Amino acid sequence: MPVIAPVRLVDVAALGDSQVTVVESEHGKLAVGLSDGVPFAVSNRCRHLLASLGEGHVTADGCLECPWHAARYDVRDGKMVRGPQGAFKPIAGAVKGTLGARALKTYPVELREGAIWLVG
C-alpha cells in the first residue's frame, strides 16, 4: 500500500471563534477544527438534514454542533450525542436513534506547525 504524504488542511488561526471550518480534501468536504485543543476532521454533512457541520461550532463540552438544528456530535468517534433541537426537539431521540446511529466518518489528523494536517 502506498504511503500517503500528510496534507495541510487549515491553519489553526483561521478557525475563528467557531473552532471549525469546511475544508476541501481528497475525501471531499470535511468539517475540520479543534475540540479542547485536539484536532479533528469529520464528514461535513449532518445526519439530520445534511447541513454543513463546518459552518457550525464547537461547544464548551467539545462537541460539534450543527448550525441548523443544534444536533451535536462527538468528534472523536463521529456519533450523534444529541438529536436536533427547536421544532425537532420532540423527535430528537428518534432522530438520534435512527439517522444518528450512522456515525460521521472520522479522518486521522494531527496538529503541527500551527495547522491541522490530514495524516492518512
Write structural notes for this entry.
The strands form three sheets. A four-stranded antiparallel beta sheet has the order 5-6-7-8. It has a three-stranded antiparallel beta sheet with strand order 1-10-9, with no helix packed on it. A three-stranded antiparallel beta sheet has the order 2-3-4, with no helix packed on it. It is built from one helix and ten strands; from the N terminus they run ββββββββαββ. The chain is mostly beta strands and 120 residues long. The mean pLDDT is 92. 6% of the residues lie in helices and 35% in strands. It has one domain: Rieske Iron-sulfur Protein.
Q: Secondary-structure map with pairings?
A:
Elements: E1 7-11, E2 20-25, E3 28-35, E4 38-43, E5 57-58, E6 64-65, E7 72-73, E8 80-82, H1 92-98, E9 109-112, E10 115-118
Antiparallel strand pairs: 1-10, 2-3, 3-4, 5-6, 6-7, 7-8, 9-10
Relevant terms:
three-stranded antiparallel β-sheet, 6% helix, 120 residues, mainly beta, four-stranded antiparallel β-sheet, Rieske Iron-sulfur Protein
CATH superfamily: Rieske [2Fe-2S] iron-sulphur domain
Query: Could you state the oligomeric state of the chains shown?
Result: single chain
Largest sheet: 4 strands, antiparallel
Q: Termini distance?
A: 12 Å
Helix content: under 10%
- Number of E-state strands: 10
- Average per-residue pLDDT, rounded, comes to 92
CATH topology: Rieske Iron-sulfur Protein
Low-confidence sequence ranges: none
Silhouette = globular
Q: Regarding CATH, which class?
A: Mainly Beta
Helix-strand sequence: EEEEEEEEHEE
SS content category: mainly beta
Strand content: 35-45%
Q: Radius of gyration in whole Å, from Cα?
A: 14 Å
Order of strands in the sheet with most strands:
5-6-7-8
Structurally, how many domains make up the residues? 1
CATH architecture: 3-layer Sandwich
